[in-house]
Here is the input.
Amino acid sequence: MASSPLHHIPLRAAANVLENVRNPRVSDAPSLTGPAPWTDAIYSHWKEYGVDPEELRAFGNKGRVVGDSLILPITGFSPGLGQVLITIFGDMGAGKIEDPEARVRHLWKGTWRS
Here is the structure.
């Protein structure tokens, strides 16, 4: 994740992590301190601008500005993800790693381990 200093999305994500650690309702790392608190913070930000996370696939292969944030299309931040995780999440529509729109290669392997 990248943001300007003190941007409200990472601050909200950090607050979510602190709340999860202080009052744990779950015990797995992804829910306590991993992607779940980030996702909650980002979705909350989008909702302030009337964006429903379920509509993301309708964005197609173009980015979209929401408030002061840029939402990259899935190929922009996770090229090849649809091919790697198709059995877990279905085909998410990401282009190949070699796609000219690819900006970041996501190396998540589908599990968190210590």
In short: The chain has a mean pLDDT of 79. The radius of gyration is 15 Å. Helices lie at 8-22, 29-32, 35-48, 74-77, 81-84, 86-89. The chain has six helices and two strands.
